[in-house]
Design a protein that fits this description.
Blueprint: E1 6-9, E2 13-16, E3 25-27, H1 40-43, E4 48-56, E5 69-74, E6 77-78, E7 80-85, E8 88-94, E9 100-103, H2 105-109, E10 115-123, E11 134-138, E12 150-154, E13 163-164, E14 168-173, E15 177-187, E16 191-201, E17 207-213, E18 219-224, E19 227-233, E20 251-258, E21 263-270, E22 275-277, E23 282-284, E24 287-288, E25 291-295, H3 309-322, E26 326-328, H4 336-345, E27 348-352, H5 366-383, E28 389-396, H6 404-419, E29 425-429, E30 445-448, H7 463-478, E31 482-486, H8 505-522, E32 527-532, H9 563-582, H10 589-595
The chain binds (2S,3S,4S,5R)-3,4,5-trihydroxy-6-oxo-oxane-2-carboxylic acid.
(2S,3S,4S,5R)-3,4,5-trihydroxy-6-oxo-oxane-2-carboxylic acid (GCB) is lined by residues 157, 331, 396-397, 430, 448, 486, 533, 550, 552.
């Protein structure tokens, strides 16, 4: 749960080298450290870095009987972190992209002054058992490499940015506090039920009262106790963007916990909506939902994967301009700030774990599996109450044809469903339909393909036959609805060629059109979505197929549209207007006017 209380921001961090042999560097937080300086060795640095900062704590945080509980929280730090406060280790955490925190009350309240020194050691090394996995390769041929030379190998296609990527906050709670809330919703025509469960820590003699307010601030339901239901008459349902004239309707659930002497309050936004999957459809509030959206990355010039508010808001404006109703958090959980806006705007999310590039046989072993289960626990705990999240994706393009993949994915998917029985679970595959050993366990088939790009490069004419066969083979085998979870072509902005040649803007457009004609046939049957690869160009490792990164964006890295963006925009608005007519549910006239 994110802090909703007395919070202070920690800023102005410094990275210092491990043995303090080099200069201390001014390092902004949040940001990746890679692109901040002019030092190429820091850009590709693998190993330990250190951050340190001193902050003054308010005296009222350190005194009182009982004194408040003081918590230090990291939105994310990539990859492995150890944190000390005033020289005392308070937490260690494995994995980027997800939050972790530490109760530092005893450390700071035991110190004589209010100055608090926060030290973080961070290591970005990826091994076969991390998520994502990687491996370190030592180059021992002295005729070809300098002494002690090694490289970090990964099997994913984005730059392994590292650093403290999301905000670091200090906040307080009472000694007895609300630790977790779980909310699920059901609805029929005129009544909705909000089932809730509240976990309180630090006191057994707690009384809890809950009230649910609508957007006008009117209390529409109340309840008492740690487990129960709130009944809402004539509910305003949470609808996706472009599926309703008032998308993203959120109620506000206020939970008051009162123990003998203190009281904790937490306010949680609640969207009332249901999700169901049939053999041919994805239903939101009982109506067929078609994913017309994008895959993204957290990626930008200079800050790398560091949280960037202006960029986040710009991206939501572009998504709405495009008529996109959804995205997948390829290939790791995105910042909570992004997820909050999805809830508010009604952008539907397939929430993906960092399980990308699971290719080595050793990455399917028990050690990796246990870590993957723990990551799913962290992800579900963080995002389970978000109405925008309609499905979990546990991985992207693993080697799911390998024999151990069957047990691995059966276990990860079953565990995720046990943690959250209310949502479907999938993983994204590029394996052959006849060989994939994980697909039997998913609710929705998510398939990536790059016909005319990686397969038969330059041959746009193969797309209809290959894409049709792809869909028919998967559907015949599993009778589950299918999302085209990736398709795309690189284009260098400003590069033109007609007839279209690879890497030109025209080729990217032509590839899209060829895919779309097949989507239009199959979406009448069982294809329930299309997510372009990628929303924007993004940085990757250097390589012979990457020119300053992956150029499959329909926007540049600086968020300027390529020609393909206009093709997609026409299509998405057309689909949105069709489906809002079909479901007899008025789309936003203002949005329609913007498009025309
Ligand atoms: C894929 C991956 C994605 C890559 C993309 C590409 O299949 O899922 O991470 O970036 O292909 O452009 O190669």
């Amino acid at each position: 749960m994110s802090p909703g209380r007395d919070a202070g921001f920690a800023q102005r961090w410094y990275r210092r080298p491990l043995r303090q042999t080099g200069p201390v560097i001014d390092m902004p937080v949040p940001a990746s450290f890679n692109d901040i300086t002019q030092d190429p060795s820091l850009e590709n640095y693998i190993g330990w870095v250190w951050y340190e900062k001193e902050v003054l704590l308010p005296l009222r945080w350190l005194q009182g009987d009982p004194a408040p509980r003081v918590v230090l929280r990291f939105g994310s730090a990539h990859y492995y972190s150890i944190v000390w406060v005033n020289g005392v280790q308070v937490v260690e955490h494995e994995g980027g992209h997800l939050p972790f925190e530490a109760d530092i009350s005893s450390v700071v309240q035991g110190s004589p002054d209010t100055l608090c020194r926060i030290t973080v050691a961070l290591n970005n090394t990826l091994t076969p058992h991390t998520l994502p996995p990687g491996s370190i390769q030592y180059m021992t041929d002295k005729s070809r490499y300098p002494k002690n030379y090694f490289v970090q190998n990964t099997r994913f296609d984005f730059f392994n940015y590292a650093g403290i990527h999301r905000p670091v906050v200090l906040y307080t709670t009472p000694a007895a506090y609300i630790d977790d809330i779980t909310v699920t919703t059901t609805s029929s025509d005129s009544v909705a039920m909000v089932q809730y469960q509240v976990a309180v820590v630090g006191s057994t003699a707690n009384s809890l009262s809950l009230s649910l307010r609508d957007q006008e601030g009117k209390v529409v339901a109340t309840a008492d106790g740690p487990v129960g239901e709130l009944k809402v008459l004539n509910p305003n349902l949470w609808w996706p963007y472009l599926m309703h004239e008032n998308p993203g309707y959120l109620y506000s659930l206020e939970v008051n916990g009162i123990s003998s002497c203190v009281c904790d309050v937490y306010t949680l936004p609640v969207g009332i909506r249901t999700v169901h999957v049939t053999s041919t459809q994805f239903l939101i509030n009982g109506r067929p939902f078609y994913f017309h959206g994008v895959n993204k990355h957290e990626d930008a010039d200079i800050r790398g994967k560091g949280l960037d508010w202006p960029l986040i808001v710009k991206d939501f404006n572009l998504l709405r301009w495009l008529g996109a109703n959804s995205f997948r958090t390829s290939h790791y959980p995105y910042a909570e700030e992004i997820m909050d806006l999805c809830d508010v705007y009604g952008i539907v999310v397939i929430d993906e774990s960092p399980g990308v590039g699971i290719k080595l046989p050793e990455s399917f072993g028990n050690k990796s599996l246990q870590h993957h289960l723990a990551v799913m626990e962290e992800l579900v705990r963080r995002d389970k109450n978000r109405p925008s999240v309609v499905m979990w994706s546990v991985a992207n393009e693993p080697a799911s044809e390998l024999p151990p993949a069957a047990h691995y994915f059966k276990t990860v998917i079953a565990h995720t469903k046990a943690l959250d029985p209310s949502r479907p679970v999938t993983f994204v595959t590029d394996a052959n339909y006849a060989l994939d050993r994980g697909a039997p366990y998913v609710d929705v088939i998510c398939v990536n393909s790059y016909f005319s790009w990686y397969h038969d490069p330059g041959h746009l004419e193969v797309i209809p036959v290959q894409l049709t066969a792809q869909f028919e083979n998967w559907y015949k085998t599993y009778q589950k609805p299918i999302i085209q979870s990736e398709y795309g072509a690189d284009s260098v902005p400003g590069l033109h060629s007609d007839p279209p040649l690879m890497f030109s803007e025209e080729y990217q457009q032509a590839m899209l059109r060829a895919y779309h004609s097949i989507f239009d046939k199959k979406r009448k049957e069982y294809v329930i979505g299309e997510l372009i690869w990628n929303f924007a160009d993004f940085m990757t490792n250097q390589g012979t197929t990457r020119v300053l990164g992956n150029k499959k964006g329909i926007f540049t890295r600086q968020r300027q549209p390529k020609a393909a963006a206009f093709v997609l925009r026409d299509r998405y608005w057309k689909i949105a207007n069709e489906s809002s007519l079909k479901s007899n549910c008025k789309g936003s006239t203002q949005d329609k006017r913007v498009h025309n």
